[in-house]
Amino acid sequence: MVTTARLVFQACLRARPQSRLLTRLSGLSWSNRTAATAAALKTEEPEDSFGFEPPTYLLTDKDEQRLRFQRNIGVSAHIDSGKTTLTERILYYTGRIRDIHEVRGRDNVGAKMDSMDLEREKGITIQSAATFCDWQTTSPVTGEKNNYAINIIDTPGHVDFTIEVERALRVLDGAILVLCAVAGVQSQTTTVDRQMRRYNVPRISFINKMDRPGANPWRVIDQIRTKLRIPAAAVQVPIGVEDQLKGVVDLVRWKAIYNEGEKGNTIVESDEIPATVVDFAKEKRRELLEQLAEVDDEIGELLIMDEEPNTVQLAAAIRRATVGLKFTPVFLGSAVKNTAVQPLLNGVCAYLPTPAESPVVAHDTALAVDAPPVPLVPAAVAPLVALAFKLEEGRYGQLTYMRVYQGTIRKGQFIFHARTGKKVKVPRLVRMHSNEMEDIEEIGPGEICAIFGVDCASGDTFTDGSTSYSMTSMFVPEPVISLAIKPVGQETPNFSRALNRFKKEDPTFRVHVDKESKETIISGMGELHLEIYVERMKREYNVDCTTGKPQVAFRETITQRADFHYTHKKQSGGAGQYGRVIGYVEPMEFDSKTGQDVAFENVVMGGNIPTQYIPACEKGFYEALEKGSLSGNEVCGCRLVLQDGLAHSVDSSELAFRQAMIGAFRDVYSKAKPVILEPIMSVEVIAPSEFQSAVIGSLNSRRGTITDSEVREDEFTVTADVALNDMFGFSNHLRGVTQGKGEFSMEYKTHQPVLPNTQQEIAEAYRKSLPQAKKELCTDDHQSCFTPPSSCLRDPTHSPY
Ligand SMILES: Nc1nc2c(ncn2[C@@H]2O[C@H](COP(=O)(O)OP(=O)(O)OP(=O)(O)O)[C@@H](O)[C@H]2O)c(=O)[nH]1
Ligand SMILES: [Mg+2]
């Protein structure tokens, strides 16, 4: 039941200066919403332990009415499950679009949400797209008809574009997890599940492609329970199978629902359940009740008393369990055959949370770092807090997608960038409908909008200046693959303009210039990710580029503690330089609080290193981490503790201490037994059963560790952990051993140390590539070799995919 109780929230309105703590906070990763916080909000008043008098905000009747009929949802799933096809139907049935166009359709128009040319050409979603629609639904609880406003973000399934899913789920209140009725839970389903858990996003599941031969929703539900470990039960059973799919039986309202008309526009509901499915439907309704009883006390008690819950009780329990992240109701249908999409939309309205039910917190940066987070309340009159979650360079400048958490944004209003304190006017406010936009005058809390002309990074918070609240940003995975890129012919400003734009829009896309080779290196989540950007440079910026071979993003780390005692001294001619640093380095685990796995700690006592030189020491340490001396890759998993040192009254300077720290780190590094780490990928292969042994053989020959396998009627799925460096050429190989019928996908899992002999090879190649060594040893012509030096390790004929 949608909450009607007035929630009392407290927030701090007192204007405070922007704090210098802001920068320190911007990387922190508190859970942005927790069920525990929600419970606390409703019952207790936050302690005012910091001496402020917090005003109270109430949700007005108007707020409640609006929020009750507002849903913000994402559509997420494994590649090709039919997310965009489903969204196209949703837009069509809600009247947002006049006609249905298919992904890779014969009319060559393409689906609304895949608006980029490249998406339409390739038939895949690359960028998430936002839209909104209105849907009139009949409540299964009260039977009343209500109009719902739904904001939808269609996300890509390919793991190379995973940041798009990450940022959508960061700001959405609920999601539809789409699954293929034949393939079931696949590798990216697990990734998406992880992302939903990270941001506590309740989900309903939709088993799509019920028209496909071999469709088996019951096996898929079983996989949701066992592989994703979330209690699940169907709230519908299909009427007819595969190409005979006619509709579904709604197990909650006990009605048969059919789609009629050419595009399934007309929904026909009947109290008569077809005789062929009635017994099965009863069995599945029982299963639904039993699953719910596991997670919901009210249903549990009714079952113990041998009582049958009525529709109202059942729908309320499904909603409670779903919103409470304890359960996922499963819907079925076929998007492409226009079957059972409308009942799914009713499910979105009935079972997914309102913006008021998604507990969201911010941190007040005027308070201590460990001060309790401040709950945000979606009241229109509360001070504005909005999060910029996605940027796009459009025809009219930067377009910033925002989720408004509390307060209201009005066109022409001044808003404040929480990190920089900069004040900006909102020149234009729009709601997005894929690549089209609708101008609006104002937008309330719990809504999604886009703003022009605001300069910021994705993940930045905006306020109205009366608070110093800041929200945590999203999780950003590390790139796993890099390649060198060079414009053909003369470099034009468009080259760096394009790279800067892509870097700003996509935090998983990195660009740097290699200090030694002077090459521009781009890094990302996979070859497709980088390939798309290279293609976009050509199409959107008219910059044709040549690229080097893709390189695995190796890293380095240390394996033991080692002490340093290092003096940097330069006293011949000119101004002298003097700095002594004493301390140790040690391995460090990833710290989920700071989101860091490297740290600098200063415990110097008695001013042996004057405090003004400590930041220079820290800077020197981070500079040294950029390039490990084994292979030239970034060093991770390392804490440095600075314990002591010595300064000279005349010759010490920031520069001297920075140099001292770089020297000390280089010196101590080999004593800390460094190793090279390589990305390990989770690889999933699906192929016809007869190729099973050939596929497993090829994964074994690449030193893969099989983690899961499943054989179905005529196809099988195998999942294995394989080093990315061993995946080069796998695509061709798989095609060869499966007569082109096998498919694979892979995603980053972790970094692990490379084998000792590989480490030796990489280190040797790196050593030879260094300018000094090159002069003395290397006979290869690296000067003219466009790819980064470590590429000479790999067979140049290999392609990674
Ligand atoms: N048989 C069948 N095919 C479907 C169904 N829904 C979608 N498809 C097909 O599946 C393919 C992929 O559909 P999309 O909608 O692009 O899938 P997606 O999940 O958006 O894909 P990405 O965004 O690239 O991950 C297309 O060829 C669709 O026509 C369905 O219900 N049944
Ligand atoms: Mg898509």
Describe this structure in words.
- The protein has 20 helices and 40 strands.
- It is an alpha+beta fold.
- It folds into five domains: 67-351, Rossmann fold, CATH 3.40.50; 361-471, Elongation Factor Tu (Ef-tu), domain 3, CATH 2.40.30; 482-548, Alpha-Beta Plaits; 555-672, Ribosomal Protein S5, domain 2; 677-758, Alpha-Beta Plaits.
- The chain has an eight-stranded antiparallel beta sheet with strand order 20-19-25-16-17-24-21-22. Strands 4-5-3-6-7-13-8 form a seven-stranded mixed beta sheet, with helices on both faces. Strands 27, 28, 29, 30 and 31 form a five-stranded antiparallel beta sheet that branches.
- A hairpin with a 6-residue loop joins strand 28 (510-513) and strand 29 (520-524).
- It is globular, with a radius of gyration of 29 Å.
- The model is unreliable at 1-53 and 774-801 (pLDDT under 50).
- The structure holds guanosine-5'-triphosphate (GTP) and magnesium ion (MG).
- The site of guanosine-5'-triphosphate has 23 residues, from helix 4.
- Residues 83-84, 125, 154 line the site of magnesium ion.
